[in-house]
Each structure stands twice: as structure tokens, then as C-alpha cells.
Specification:
eight-stranded mixed sheet, seven-stranded mixed sheet, flat, single chain, 1128 residues
Length: 1128
């Protein structure tokens, strides 16, 4: 291939590559996009990778009707840490029970604004099941027109980018997939967000699964994704913070440790996230469903109550617990010991408590709200500790009033009234109110009912409070878009199934019905739009089960409500009997009475069985009526209505007391709220996410548990509906753009109509008529194996095309690079030759000028200095001095240095004024006395000595009069310590020519002649205490004088100069002895410490503690030099 052929090929395949670059790289780096070594091995491994890690969309599963194939695909992906797999728009997640590091901010940015099919499956992005391609890691993924590359580029450019990128992708992806799932969490959320922005339609993401499947974590990850990737302002940031912080609050009050999950949500949650026209979150709203209130009063073995109780006990401050009447031991509370699991290794209650308190503040709770909320939580624990005893006639009574006192204070109610309400029931008969005493069992039930009511209503208030803080308050624009996030319980089948499981499974029946209807509807609409004949799909329609549960007058809920409301002795067994009489002939209902002999062996007499879409479930009717009634005695309501707690006054409305209408039962309320939820979901675009989890202690793939969850999540039914028609469909332009290289007639570009081009392509590929259909704008492929065969052929074709393009491009780029290098080398050589020539010419000119000046200077050497001879004269002098230096003896050099130093000293001293000379003399004396001897000497070095520390205004005139003609040389304020009691007394020390005088106000207290001064003692530490020693035999003196000065260095230097006793100053380490009176001695002990302290010690000595931390002497010397420079 010559250069002309290479250029022709490049012009056909990549016309604009030099202008725009390639895959984000400069054109010069294109040779490195794909490494040549090892590419063939990578390409061949990519063709078999599908067998290793399975497919990322179950719609492309060949044997889609086999549950074993379904689970095997999950196993393959789980083994490779690929936890996300699609069924069309349903995302199946397998909880890995470990951190895969795929939820970081970098991963969020990776999914932000990216085409939906450009990245791997994730909770944040929803895939369209019809547009899938084979990835290098074996994952089946959907692609845009060549992964988000703009369609306005030339087809040849697109194909080159796809081919070269594919080989690099295979190499990188196989490396990256070791130990980390590249399919990140944010695909569904990002696609829902972009659909909301572009289509202006509200979106909804549904998350369902069994306990421990990761529903709560998935919803939190989606919220975090929106918080990080959406536009930000101050107001928006506040809303983002509140949305995120609502999670720890709701988890604390609504989550608990169960046998399957340490952080199980015990309520359903639907959250609206409201976005403005810019796409920024500006508000939100939360609806909660069916809180498991029974957990407040009872937990199974190995389970815990709601987190908030343990967090408050473990993390609450001592003052808080004391005010709430609580102890830091959960074993002390009856509501917390039934599960026998006070602590969980995976939960740090103390740190979680701090997060909850911080979250409450962020959401907008003030101190009063938090205090009253915690009072209610504490009151629930105190209610559980109320103990009943048996009084006369079998009636109940409260054995201790300790808990009642706490409850009265925490709830703000009257203790006596509360006591009566907990032991009596108010009955209204013919307009009269009667108080009927309760027996032990009834009283305990009343107490538990109050606890559940208080906690349940408080939880509802908490949700409403969070909603108030998330309300979008901008009246200027009332139009906003919404993304709904539904975190709902999945199908539950336990060994003992009760009323809660009945409601939860009823909810899942409705959701399954919704999934199937929406799937069939969307499929049928697309077929009709493309002109493809719609083939009716046979599927299990669970509407018959929904009707069995919710039908008016005949449904199970209606029968349950009727049994709850009817007069007479109604109980759970009568409900079961009425169920048998009313709907006993229904095909999906079985009871012990109606069952055959084989079934009766596995069913109890108090159970009924429903044949759900996901399988059979036995429900035990014990507790159905009580849980459905959820009634609270009237007098207990009255007590709560009288509460001074503001939260309880909102939770218990006084209108309830006057409203004679019986409140709706729990099942009816749940049915109504579920109906509203279905209306919301039916009216919006759907983005669904389902979750399943292995949940084994060893974190291995538990096939039995996975099969159980696949069944009860209805995944096989969902897959079967989606695969009833064509598994893959794609627009003509995209299909042709991707696979045109497989046909000579369509490569490198097709000039005719797109439909004809696709028809030519599939004919060349050998598609059979039953394998595909041609729609108006799309091609429909029925079998995944047809698509896989096409993909494998494309992978093989890519290698040869990419190799050819690489060879042509490398030759062209290397030739271009060589031409550039050659041109550059010639330019550099010419530039460097010019520099060398100019340097040589400059040196020659400089040499000629030097010779000329030297010759002219020699001619004029005997004249006066002038421009003609100055160069010559300077050179002669320089030569003479340098020759002299080389020939001088060593002693002469030292003598010259001394002479120079003396000259410099003489010059400096000549410039000093008398005042500065006096200052330097004093400093020299201070240096001789104290340098390296006293610790605070360096501190005094940069400070100038002053002539006196006391002015004439500071001295009493009587003192000056008493001094007479004696001239005062220095005065300083000092502190004198008594010789015996060491009491500090303020004094003034005056220095004259002959003596030192100690003055108290106007009196001369002591006069010490310099001749009589025996010496001066001072410690080596940084204190200011010194002692003036005087003769003990002198009757005029009372003993040695102990003084303290803030300027001790200056004061002692002045005394030494005035008394001419420089050598009499003694610097002592340790203790100083001094004379108190004739024959008696006193001792001063000096010790270093953190602060200055002078006081009498227990041993009778004077104790002086001095500071021991001062900067090094070099610091003060530097300051001194700066001061000297400023003065000069």
C-alpha cells in the first residue's frame, strides 16, 4: 500500500479526525489508542466472555423459560462482583454484603448526563431491554449510536471510533473487572432524571424486595446521586441536605434489627423529589405505609426494637438520660429485652445517635421539638416497665408509682388520671359514662395499645414534620417536576405469617399487577406504532387474587372489617369461619376445613392459605382482629388529649373524642392508601428496580434462597411477558451504522434508503424470515442467538478493520512526524550556527577594543588620569596589588587584618554619642554579671535600660525633702517581703551616690550605706527576687532585705554601678540564706514552674516558683541588633 492508497483510505474513513481529535485525544496520540501486542488474544477472549459472566439483561437469555438458567446467570455475575442485571426496565440487584467501591463521587460523575446505554447497569440508570450489545467483559449492554458519539459526524468517522475504542475497551474492561463491579448504581436514577428534564413528565423509581435485599441502601444511593449531580444554589443545597438527612432520622425511628437484616425498614416509604425548571431539587414529600407498631411491644428472639431506643440509651448524654429517667442499660426495659439482642456488632448506636441529632438540626427541628420528641420516646420505655398486680375481685392495679411519675412529667399529664386510665375502661351506655375495671390481661393490653398508638402517631407526626421542612415554598413558580421513589416491602413468607404479611403480600399483588399491565401496554403500543402484528401473550393475571382480597362486601378485607364491627362475641376463629362461608369456593383460597386430606396435614386449624402469583402462603388468623381494629380505649385517648406535650396534642386530636363515627380499620386504611399509590404510579412514567439478596452468613451464593426470592418477586413471570415477542429491536440508522462493516454492499457507507440498507445487510447475514421483522423505523429480532451471532461476527470483523486502519494511520502519522522533525532540525541547525558566528565576532571585537585601550594607555601613562589612560593605570595598580598579595608573608596578613579591625572600631566609637555610650557600658556590665548565669537575662537584652523607673510625680515630696542634697540616680518600684511572715509590701527603692533607700509612701523605712552593703544574692532562674545583705551587728539594720523587682537585671546592674560592687553580686542555684536578725537565718527556695508564684512554704521557707520557658538567646540577640540599627 503506497502513500496515495493510505491517504485515500483515511479520507474515506476519517475525514475530520485531524480537525476534531479522536476519542478525546489529540491526533498526535492516536497511535497509542490501541496497543498492538496482545490485542488478538483480548479480542478472542471477548467472544467467550459472555459464557463467563453471563448477560446483563435477562431478556437476552437464550433459555428464558428455565429458572435454572436464570439463576445460573445470576451466579456467574455474582461470582464476578457484577451485582446488577436487567429484565428490560426492571433492575435486579443481588446484595453482595460488602463494599464494592462503586458508589463514589467519581462513579456518580461517570453516569451524570451520559447516554443511557453508554455505561453499565446500575440502580441509577434504567436500560431499554431492546438495545443491547456485547461488552468486552461479557456484559450485554445497550449502546447509543456508537456510545454517545454525536450523530452529526460522518459515518466513517463513527465506525473508526467504534472499532478502535472497542479493542481498547476489551483490554481495559477485562483488567478493571477483577474484584469490582463496573456496573455502578446510578444509571436508573440518571435516566429518570434526564427523562423528566427532556420529556417534562414526572418519573417514578420502584424498589422492592425481601428484608435484607438492599432496598433502603438503594434508595439512599439514588438520593446521594441527585444531591451530588444536580445544580446547586444556597437554597437548593439546603433542600439537598434535608433530603439526605431525612434518611438517618427515618431509619432511626422506622428501622430495626431483624433475623435477616440488621437495618430492616419496618415501614413502606414513598418519596416525591420535586425539581424546578433548572433541574435542581427544591422540595420533597414523604408518604409512609404500615409501620410495624407491634414491634414496639414485642420482638422475636434475635431481633430488636426500633433503633432510636438503643441509640438514645447508648449515645445520650448523662444529663439527658437523667432528665428522662433512663439508665444506660437496655436490659432494664421490658420493651427492649424480649428479643434478647441489646447490641449488634454491625451497628454503632453511639455514633448513630450523633448522626440523628445532627440530622434533626439540619431538617429544622428546634430544641423544644427535640426535647418533646425524646420525652415521648422515653415515655414508651417507661410504659413498658409498668407492672400490674392483682387487687380485689381479680382487678388490676399498678404496683409502683415510679414509672407513673416519670410518665406524668414526660407526657405532661396528670399522674392519677393516667393511672386510672391504665387500669379502667370507660364505657358509655345510654348517655352515661361508666368506669369498668380491667383485669391483668386487659390492663397489659391497654398499656401496650397506648405504647403502640403513641409511637405510631409520633412517627406519622415526624414524617409530616420532615415534609414541612421539604415543602417547596416558592410561590412565583408553582410548576415543578417530580421523581417518585418507592421503597416498598417485598413479598414475605415466614414460618409464621400474620396480619402484617397479609397486608405486605397484598401490596405486592397490586404491584405485580401494575408491572404486568404496564409491560404489556408498552409492548403493544410499540408494536402498533411499527406496524408489527401484536400476538396476545398468555400470562398469570393476578387480578383474581387482588379481587379476592379487596372486593367490596366479598373480599377478605371486607369480611375482616365486618367481623371487627359486628356486635357479639367476635374473634379470630369466627372470622375464619365467615371467610369459609363467604369465599370458601374461591380457587385461590384454602382453609383446614376446605382442604383435602394431604393439605390438612400441613395446615393448622387457625390458618388459611392464599395462592399468590408467587406461590402459596399460609396465614395464621390469631391477632387479625386486634391488629385490624388497632383500638385505643376512650379514656386513654382523653388522657393523651390533655397532654401538655405539643407533639401529642397534634397526634391526638380532641375531635376524635366527639366524633362518634368509628375510625377505619388498619386494613381499610392500608387499602385506601395503596389505591392512591397505584393511581400515582399509573399516571407517571415508570422506572422500576427490583432487588434480591443471597443473605447467607458466609456471603456465598445461596441458590435455595435465590430461587425463593426469584419466585416471590415474580421475576420469571416478568421475563416471560417481555420475551413473548421480539427480544431485540433497533432503529434502522443505528442498526445499519453498527453492523454495516459485515456486508460489502453497505461498507463503508450506504447511500440509499435506510430500510433498504438494513434489508441488504440482513440478507447478507443470512437471517431467516422467522428470526426478524421489518417495522416502519425499526428492525425486530426475535431470538438472542441471532443477535449474539451478529455480535460475534462484528467482533471478529473489527479486528481486521482496526488493524488495517492502524497500519495506515501509523504510516501516515510517522511520515508526518518525520517531516516535522526534519523541518525543525534544519531550523534549529541554522539558528544555532548563527548564534555561534555572532559570538565569535563579538569576542573578536572585544579583544581588539582591549588591545587598543591598553596601547593608548601605555602612550599616555605619564599624564594625569584621563579617559585615555585610566584603563592602563587601573590595570597596573591591580597587577601590583595582586602580585603583592601573592608574595606577602603570613604575619603581614594578620597585622593588616588587626589594623583594619582597629580602624573600624575607632570609626564606630567616634560616631557614638555620650548617651548611647552610657547605655552600652551598662549593658556590658549586665552581660558580665548575668550572661549564661541567669535565665531571664536574654529577655532583658533587647530592652534599653532607663535612667529611672519613677518620675518626680511618683515620689512623695517628703521623701525628696528627707534626701536633702543627695542626688537620686535611680528609682524603681519593688515588693518587699517581711523577714518572718513573708507578707508582700509595695515599696520604692531609691539609689543615691552614697546609699540605697527603701521608701514606703512618705517615710524612709531603711537606709543602706554602700559601704555597709556586704553583698547581693539572686537566683539563677527567671524570677525577680534578690536579697541585699547588710551586717547583722549593725543596730541600725534589722537584717537582710528581701526584694522583688519586675526589672531585676536593670535594677541589680544600677546597684552594682552606684555602689561600685560589681563583684559582690552572687548568682546562686537552689536556695539563698539570709539573716533575719542577730543569730537567726531565713531560707528562700527557688524552683522552676509554669507560672510565677512567691509564697510561704509549709517548712517555713519562702518558696519562689519561676517561669522556665523563654526563647533562646539568639532570638534576643537578633532583636538587640535590630534595636541598635534603628538607633544608629
Amino acid at each position: 500500500m503506497d502513500v496515495a492508497d493510505i491517504r485515500n483510505l483515511m479520507r474515506k474513513t476519517q475525514a475530520s479526525i485531524l480537525k476534531n481529535g479522536f476519542l478525546g485525544k489529540p491526533s498526535d496520540d492516536l497511535g497509542n489508542v490501541v496497543a498492538s501486542d496482545g490485542v488478538r488474544a483480548m479480542m478472542e477472549s471477548a467472544l467467550t466472555a459472555r459464557d463467563r459472566v453471563g448477560v446483563s439483561d435477562f431478556v437476552l437469555l437464550e433459555n428464558f423459560t428455565s429458572e435454572a438458567s436464570f439463576i445460573e446467570n445470576l451466579r456467574k455475575r455474582f461470582k464476578e462482583n457484577l451485582i446488577y442485571t436487567y429484565i428490560g426496565s426492571v433492575l435486579v440487584s443481588v446484595n453482595p454484603y460488602k463494599d464494592l467501591e462503586i458508589y463514589t463521587k467519581n462513579h456518580m460523575e461517570r453516569y451524570r448526563g451520559v447516554n443511557f446505554y453508554e455505561v453499565s447497569p446500575h440502580i441509577g440508570k434504567r436500560y431499554d431491554l431492546r438495545h443491547i450489545e456485547e461488552e468486552g467483559d461479557g456484559a450485554r449492554r445497550e449502546f447509543p449510536p456508537f456510545r454517545g458519539i454525536p450523530l452529526n459526524r460522518e459515518p466513517s468517522e463513527l465506525m473508526l471510533q467504534e472499532l478502535v475504542w472497542s479493542q481498547k475497551r476489551v483490554e481495559n474492561r477485562l483488567k478493571q473487572q477483577r474484584g469490582t463491579d463496573s456496573s455502578d448504581v446510578y444509571a436508573v436514577g440518571d435516566n429518570a432524571y434526564r427523562s423528566m428534564r427532556t420529556e417534562r413528565k414526572d418519573q417514578c423509581i420502584l424498589i422492592s424486595g425481601e428484608s435484607g435485599a438492599g432496598k433502603t441502601e438503594a434508595s439512599k444511593k439514588i438520593l446521594q446521586y441527585y444531591a451530588v449531580t444536580c445544580p446547586v444554589s444556597d437554597q437548593v443545597q439546603t433542600v439537598k441536605d434535608r433530603l439526605l438527612q431525612s434518611n438517618p432520622v427515618l431509619e432511626a425511628f422506622g428501622n430495626a434489627k431483624t433475623l435477616r437484616n440488621d437495618n430492616s425498614s419496618r415501614f413502606g416509604k414513598y418519596m416525591d423529589i420535586q425539581f424546578d425548571f433548572k433541574g435542581a431539587p427544591v422540595g420533597g414529600h414523604i408518604i409512609n405505609y404500615l409501620l410495624e407498631k407491634s414491634r414496639v411491644v414485642h420482638q422475636n428472639h434475635g431481633e430488636r426494637n426500633f433503633h432510636i431506643f438503643y441509640q438514645m440509651i447508648e449515645g445520650g448524654e448523662e444529663d439527658l438520660l437523667r432528665s428522662l429517667g433512663l439508665e444506660r442499660n437496655p436490659q432494664q426495659y421490658q420493651y427492649l429485652v424480649k428479643g434478647n439482642c441489646p447490641k449488634v456488632s454491625s451497628i454503632n448506636d453511639r455514633s448513630e445517635w450523633k448522626l440523628v441529632r445532627k440530622a434533626l438540626t439540619v431538617i429544622g427541628f428546634n430544641e423544644d421539638d427535640v426535647e418533646e420528641l425524646l420525652n415521648i420516646i422515653a415515655s414508651v420505655l417507661h410504659l413498658g416497665n409498668i407492672q400490674y398486680g392483682e387487687a380485689e375481685e381479680g382487678n388490676s392495679c399498678i404496683t409502683s408509682d415510679t414509672q407513673i411519675k416519670y410518665l406524668a412529667r414526660l407526657l405532661g399529664v396528670n399522674g392519677a388520671v393516667l393511672t386510672e386510665a391504665l387500669t379502667h375502661k370507660k364505657i358509655i351506655a345510654k348517655g352515661e359514662e361508666l368506669m369498668s375495671p380491667l383485669n391483668l390481661e386487659q390492663a397489659s393490653s391497654a398499656r401496650d395499645a397506648l405504647s403502640k398508638a403513641v409511637y405510631g402517631r409520633t412517627f406519622t407526626w415526624l414524617v409530616n414534620k420532615i415534609n414541612a421542612s421539604l415543602t417547596y415554598t416558592d410561590d412565583s413558580s408553582k410548576h415543578y417536576s417530580v421523581i417518585g421513589l418507592l421503597d416498598i416491602y417485598g413479598f414475605e413468607v415466614f414460618q409464621h405469617n400474620s396480619f402484617e404479611q397479609f397486608c405486605i403480600n397484598y401490596c405486592n399483588e397490586k404491584l405485580q399487577q401494575l408491572f404486568i399491565e404496564l409491560t404489556l401496554k408498552s409492548e403493544q403500543e410499540e408494536y402498533e406504532a411499527e406496524g408489527i402484528t401484536w400476538e396476545p401473550v398468555q400470562y398469570f393475571n393476578n387480578k383474581i387474587i387482588c379481587d379476592l382480597v379487596e372486593e367490596k362486601f366479598k373480599g377478605i378485607i371486607s369480611i375482616l372489617d365486618e367481623e371487627c364491627l359486628r356486635p357479639g362475641d367476635a374473634n379470630d376463629l369466627t372470622f375464619l369461619e365467615k371467610l369459609e362461608d363467604t369465599v370458601g369456593g374461591h380457587a385461590h383460597l384454602v382453609t383446614h376445613k376446605l382442604a383435602d386430606t394431604k393439605t390438612r396435614k400441613v395446615m393448622a386449624r387457625d390458618e388459611f392459605r392464599l395462592l399468590h402469583y408467587a406461590g402459596e402462603v399460609n396465614y395464621n388468623v390469631n391477632g387479625f382482629l386486634d391488629k385490624n381494629n388497632d383500638l385505643l380505649f376512650r379514656n386513654l385517648k382523653e388522657v393523651m388529649c390533655m397532654s401538655e406535650n405539643k407533639i401529642l396534642t397534634k397526634c391526638f386530636d380532641r375531635e376524635e373524642l366527639s366524633d362518634k363515627k368509628r375510625p377505619d380499620t388498619a386494613a381499610t386504611q392500608f387499602k385506601a392508601s395503596l389505591a392512591k399509590l397505584m393511581e400515582i404510579l399509573m399516571s407517571w412514567s415508570r422506572r422500576t428496580s427490583a432487588a434480591s439478596s443471597p443473605m447467607t452468613p458466609s456471603r456465598r451464593f445461596d441458590e435455595v434462597l435465590i430461587r425463593h426470592q426469584v419466585k416471590y418477586l415474580g421475576l420469571m413471570e416478568n421475563l416471560r411477558v417481555r420475551r413473548a415477542g421480539f427480544a431485540y429491536r433497533r432503529r434502522y440508522e443505528v442498526f445499519l451504522q453498527r453492523y454495516k462493516s459485515l456486508c460489502p454492499d453497505t461498507w463503508p457507507s450506504w447511500q440509499g434508503k435506510l430500510r433498504e440498507g438494513v434489508a441488504t445487510l440482513v440478507k447478507h447475514l443470512g437471517y431467516k424470515p422467522e428470526e426478524y421483522k421489518m417495522g416502519r423505523s425499526k428492525i425486530f429480532i426475535r431470538f438472542p442467538k441471532t443477535l449474539f451471532a451478529t455480535e460475534d461476527a462484528l467482533e471478529t470483523r473489527k479486528h481486521s478493520l482496526a488493524t488495517k486502519l492502524q497500519a495506515g494511520w501509523r504510516g501516515y502519522s510517522q511520515k508526518t512526524k518525520f517531516q516535522k522533525l526534519r523541518t525543525s532540525a534544519v531550523r534549529v541547525q541554522a539558528w544555532w550556527r548563527g548564534i555561534l558566528a555572532r559570538r565569535r565576532a563579538q569576542r573578536r571585537r572585544q579583544a581588539a577594543d582591549t588591545i587598543r585601550r591598553f596601547v593608548k594607555g601605555f602612550i599616555y601613562r605619564h599624564r594625569e588620569r584621563c579617559p585615555e589612560n585610566e584603563y592602563f593605570l587601573d590595570y597596573v595598580r591591580y597587577s601590583f596589588l595582586m602580585n603583592l598579595r601573592r608574595n606577602l608573608p603570613k604575619s603581614a596578613s594578620e597585622q593588616l587584618r588587626k589594623l583594619c579591625m582597629q580602624n573600624m572600631v575607632w570609626s564606630y566609637c567616634k560616631k557614638i554619642n555620650p548617651e548611647w555610650k552610657h547605655q552600652m557600658e551598662q549593658k556590658m556590665i549586665a552581660s558580665e554579671l548575668f550572661k549564661d548565669k541567669k535565665d531571664n537575662y536574654p529577655q532583658s537584652v533587647p530592652k534599653l535600660f532607663v535612667s529611672t523607673r519613677l518620675n518626680g510625680e511618683d515620689l512623695n515630696p517628703k521623701v525628696l525633702q528627707a534626701l536633702g542634697s543627695e542626688k537620686m540616680k535611680y528609682a524603681v518600684p519593688v515588693t518587699k517581703y517581711d523577714r518572718r511572715g513573708y507578707k508582700p509590701r509595695p515599696r520604692q527603692l531609691l539609689l543615691t551616690s552614697n546609699c540605697a533607700v527603701i521608701v514606703e509612701e512618705g517615710k524612709l523605712k531603711q537606709r543602706i550605706e554602700y559601704e555597709a552593703l556586704k553583698g547581693i544574692s539572686v537566683s539563677s532562674l527567671s524570677d525577680g527576687v534578690f536579697v541585699l545583705h547588710v551586717p547583722s551587728e549593725d543596730n541600725k539594720q534589722k537584717g537582710d532585705v528581701v526584694l522583688q523587682s519586675d526589672h531585676v537585671i536593670e535594677t541589680l546592674t544600677k546597684i552594682a554601678i552606684c555602689s561600685d560592687k560589681i563583684n559582690s553580686i552572687n548568682i546562686i542555684q537552689g536556695s539563698i540564706k539570709y539573716s533575719v536578725a542577730q543569730g537567726k537565718e531565713g531560707i528562700i527556695d527557688f524552683t522552676p514552674g509554669s507560672e510565677l508564684l512567691v509564697a510561704k512554704a509549709k517548712n517555713g521557707h519562702l518558696s519562689v516558683v519561676s517561669l522556665n520557658e523563654y526563647p533562646p538567646l539568639e532570638h534576643y540577640l537578633r532583636l538587640t541588633s535590630e534595636v541598635l540599627l534603628s538607633l544608629n
